[in-house]
Amino acid sequence: MVGLPFPPGLVSIMDTVGPTWLTSVFSGIIMSIIVYKLTGFLSLLCFKGYDKLSKAEQVEWNNRGFSTFHALIVASASFYLLLLSGLFDEGSQDDLIINRNSIVSNSVLGISVGYFLADMSMILRNFPALGGLEYVLHHGLSMYSIFLSLISGQAQIYILMVLFSEATTPFVNLRWYLDVAGKKSSKMYVCNGILLFLGWLVARILLFIYFFTHMFIHFDQVKKIFPLGFYSIISVPPLLAVMNLVWFWKIAKGLIKTLSKAKRQ
Q: How far is CA 170 from CA 66, 158, 189, 231, 239, in A?
């Protein structure tokens, strides 16, 4: 029987499908499940108010546990790969920056895909308790971009830049934890709000500006070598950037409100 012909670009992408990144995707899913269960177990032992939370609040509490864990892993790994490993240093290799990847970078992207799959399933199953349509859109765009870069092995420098922005997630989750725990008037809540504002400004606003600057410098390379990735890069990141700006505006308003309240007290 004669097989159906595949476009050359699709064939080259399919050739990269292997056990390494499939294992990392599966590991990301298992990691999310384990940390979800572990968060509930430890919270029941260490936080007296956990058993008084509603079932929906307990689900979100545990969900934010593996969200924080994932954020710490991918933000740390992205920082290492972008700044310390030398993988993307100019002139360090003969390959173009857009073509560079490694076992570590592939593993990080795979774990992140696994996390987003696990989190998306929870969001849809509990919709809209864990997030509305904007979260579905955010996760969908993120999974598409990461998966495309993972199976092609290209443009990983840009995906890692975006993943580094997950460094703000622990502050977002801590704000929710403190709110649920009745600590909105505490100094920790105020300090966390300031750190969230500054972290968001650096990791999700200024870094995105650098992202677009770097992309335009290598504009012709991306378009010629990775056409599908090129059109994805000029469409997906701008949408994420708009979402980040909207959330940044909400964070700024919340910080002003919190600081004003703290000053009055």
A: 10, 22, 13, 31, 22
Ranges in the chain, pLDDT < 70: 1-19, 225-226, 228-230, 233-234
Q: Which domain range does residue 29 map to?
A: 18-263
Residue 2 lies in a domain: no
Q: Is residue 225 part of a domain?
A: yes
Query: Taking a C-beta distance cutoff of 8 angstroms, is the pair 28, 115 a contact?
Result: yes
Q: For the chain, how long is the longest CA-to-CA vector? A: 79
d(CA 232, CA 184): 40
Strand, coil or helix: 88: coil
- Could you tell me how far CA 141 lies from the centroid of its own chain? 11
6 in any annotated domain: no
Render pLDDT for 150-165 as a digit per residue (tens, 0 to 9).
988 888 998 999 999 9
Element (H, E) at 187: helix 187-200
Q: What's the CA gap between 179 and 145, in Å, rounded?
A: 33
Residue ranges of alpha helices (H) inside 80-168 are: 103-125, 133-152, 156-164
> Is residue 93 situated within a structural domain?
yes
Tell me the pTM: 0.88
